[in-house]
Amino acid sequence: xxxxxxxxxxxxxIAGVTKHFPGTPKDSYVKxxxxxxxxEKASATxxxxxxxxxxxxxxxxxxxxxxxxxxxxxxxxxxQIYRNVADxxxxxxxxxxxxxSWWQQTDCDIFEAIERHIAR
Length: 120
What we know:
The longest helix has 19 residues, at 2-20. The protein is globular.
């Protein structure tokens, strides 16, 4: 079900932002799933599915560093932004090296949350 998969992604995002963001995050960063826009729900679900497919494709994932896991999430999410947002702001589609540390760490957390979710 889309809601379950996307919700895992969104809840991991919120947990990561809450943990890593310096100061108080914008309300939109921690907006609950039920209040999230449809395009963002679809993007969260698609990114979740891409991470799961990657994990299930083979044993190579066990050798990934935490950063590599985060980079994968960031890349999958970036594709969704370009797919669903007509003219995204440059600040919404940064390269990994241009992302703030809190965002990088949150993406790493998301990959690991998905790993835990599918291992259950």
